[in-house]
Design a protein that fits this description.
It is a single chain. This protein has three domains: about 10-150, 3-Layer(aba) Sandwich (Restriction Endonuclease), CATH 3.40.91; about 155-315, no CATH class; about 360-540, no CATH class. Helices cover about 45% and strands about 15% of the residues. The protein has 20 helices and 14 strands. It has helices spanning about 10-15, 55-70, 80-90, 115-125, 140-150, 180-190, 210-220, 225-230, 265-275, 300-310, 320-325, 325-335, 360-370, 380-385, 405-410, 415-435, 440-460, 475-495, 515-520, 520-550; strands at about 25-30, 35-45, 100-105, 135-140, 155-170, 175-180, 230-235, 240, 250-265, 285-295, 340-345, 360, 500, 510. Strand 3, helix 4 (about 115-125) and strand 4 (about 135-140) form a beta-alpha-beta unit. Helix 6 crosses helix 9 (about 265-275) and helix 16 (about 415-435) packs across helix 18. The model has no long low-confidence stretch (mean pLDDT about 85).
């Protein structure tokens, strides 16, 4: 109620009518100012999976029917309900009343078609042509988004700007453009921070060569900055031009709601870094700003993404940067943030080094690629040969495949954030285990074979599927031991298959560098087969021994 109806927490607590005879309606709240009556059923699902039982939903539907038909007697056995009935009778006499019913449950599954049909039948019956009755569902994902703020989307809720020498396009999408003083832009960045560019492909990257040139222009020739820089592109959900400025050709005061800068993060950050706080003498320069309202867009989210992509093609943007726009990346980050784990899928100057509570897109990409690596070992080889290809959205797989791009195949929507974070921790343990004191060809082998070994560990031991979010010390030790064992087995396979041999005078020799070997899918496939066969051979005697020991003892 607090979230949806806008009442206070105390009012939300007082809205609870849960108990015997409640007709499946657990909370009731009426807002006289908005003329809305909110009715909620809540269901706790202990394991966080599934959806409410069909019988519970049917009970909720029946309770709504009784209430909408004025059958208040159906609720009189419930004391809390009985006290509400006189007020509700008056509420239903309001000609502007709208009823909002909500099913809230702590499961991740969406509501099945049979439940949806119940609600749709009810809506058609009582409000076939209007908004009198609306019914919505909120599951555990919805609640998680409320807590993390993911439902609000990126950007700033409300921003006031003053555009000088403005232009104003009324359609098809309302757009304002003009100049803003450099000092005003720097102050906006200091006040709102990185949330200003949260919708951008990447955050401010700090002191790069390009950014140093931008900052230098601000410091040394601010009067020319307008001519030396492309400026900023932003969108908002809605904008309002101050009525007193509608006919003012020199300046317009604008209020933008849901404001995001989607091109120009480096410009914005560089201006802020070059303008002192507070500036002794504000720089006498301007930056060009284009602001697009999405209010009239039928597909505002889709068009916003097109704006972001298109305006960034002019810069040195790689496929990795476009990955940051994908909703799967945001989903992973949001699922982990409440557990204190930060997933950094955008490049930025404030990205911390990977540690026990932080990991990056690069780490997640290799882990997910190796978990998705098939028998052909193409993904395993690409980790060394062409890692950036995992960020490609090009459809390279047959139309019969559910996921047709490499990116879609490794970052599947059904892959949980917990599995990814555990896989990253296993990856770190394996990489650490492969840092040996070897030299020469053995060193080359350990440096380049770790990805194939990690892939085999994901397949055989499946440590990424554990229940706990963080690997225990025992689990980390187990993966370390496994990595070292697999490495020595793989070394033996390499000898057997002629990838390395002992020199007559001591030491080792190899016809090809091991980076070349482990960058080739065919070679990886051959070596992986030998490694798995070695592991199978080790497991076979243990299995046979267990079976013989399970027989009836002879007397």
């Amino acid at each position: 109620m607090n979230r949806l109806a806008g009442c206070t927490l105390d009012e939300a607590a007082r809205s609870v009518v849960d108990g015997g005879g409640d007709g499946g309606i657990d909370a009731v709240w009426h807002s006289p100012t908005s003329h809305k009556l909110w009715l909620a059923q809540s269901k706790f699902i202990r394991d966080g999976r599934g959806e409410p039982a069909l019988g519970d939903v049917a009970k909720f539907k029946t309770g709504l029917e009784n209430l909408l038909q004025g059958n208040f007697a159906a609720f009189e056995t419930n004391a809390a309900w009985k006290a509400l009935i006189p007020k509700l009778q008056a509420t239903f006499s309001d000609g502007a009343l709208e009823v909002r019913a909500v099913l809230v449950y702590s499961g991740t599954a969406t509501v099945s078609e049979d439940r949806r049909r119940m609600f749709e039948d009810l809506r058609v019956r009582f409000a076939p042509d209007g908004d009198y009755l609306q019914i919505q569902t909120c599951n555990l994902t919805t609640i998680h988004d409320w807590i993390t703020g993911a439902d609000q989307g990126p950007g700033i809720p409300e921003v006031d700007l003053k555009l000088l020498k403005p232009g104003w396009l009324k359609g098809p999408y309302e757009t304002l453009y003009g100049l803003i003083p450099l000092a005003d832009i720097a102050e906006l960045y200091r006040r709102c921070g990185t949330q200003l560019v949260a919708a951008n492909i990447r955050a401010y990257k700090g002191r790069t060569e390009v950014n140093e040139h931008i900052a230098l222009a601000v410091k040394e020739e601010p009067q020319h900055f307008l001519y030396l820089n492309n400026g900023l592109t932003a969108y908002c959900h809605r904008l309002e031009v101050n009525n007193l400025d509608r006919a003012n050709a020199e300046e317009k005061r604008v209020r933008a709601f849901g404001f995001s800068i989607v091109n120009g993060a480096q410009t914005l950050g560089s201006i802020a870094s070059a303008v002192p706080n507070p500036p002794a003498t504000p720089p006498d320069g301007m930056v060009f700003v284009k602001l697009i309202s999405l209010e009239r867009c039928e597909d505002d989210l889709g068009f916003a993404e097109r704006i972001t992509r298109s305006t960034n093609f002019q810069n040195q943007i790689g496929e990795r940067d476009f990955v940051a726009l994908d909703e799967q990346q945001e989903r992973i980050a949001n699922q982990l943030v409440l557990s204190g784990i930060a997933y950094h899928y955008k490049e930025g100057e404030d990205t911390p080094a990977p540690d026990a509570t932080n990991f990056t897109l690069d780490e997640a990409t290799t882990a997910c690629a190796l978990m998705a690596s098939g028998p052909d070992c193409d993904f395993c080889a690409r980790v060394l040969a062409n890692r950036r290809s995992f960020w490609s959205f090009d459809e390279v797989f047959p139309v019969t495949d559910l996921y047709r791009s490499r990116y879609a195949k490794i970052f599947r929507p059904d892959l949980s954030a917990r599995t990814i974070w555990r896989a990253v921790q296993v990856q770190r343990a394996v990489k650490a285990a492969m840092r040996t004191g070897e030299t020469g060809i053995r060193k080359e082998f350990f440096e380049n074979s770790r990805w194939l070994i990690l892939s085999a560990i994901y397949v055989r031991l499946r440590p990424q599927l554990g229940d706990a979010l963080t690997l225990t010390a025992a689990e980390t030790a187990e993966q370390t031991t496994a990595a070292q064992d697999y490495a020595e087995r793989l070394w033996t396979v390499c000898q057997t298959k002629g990838f390395v041999s002992a020199r007559a005078g001591g030491g080792w020799e190899a016809p090809r560098h091991f980076r070349s070997v482990f960058s080739a899918a065919g070679d990886c496939q051959q070596l992986r087969g030998g490694l798995l066969a070695s592991l199978d051979a080790q497991a076979a005697p243990a299995t046979a021994g267990a079976q013989s020991n399970s027989g009836t003892p002879q007397t």
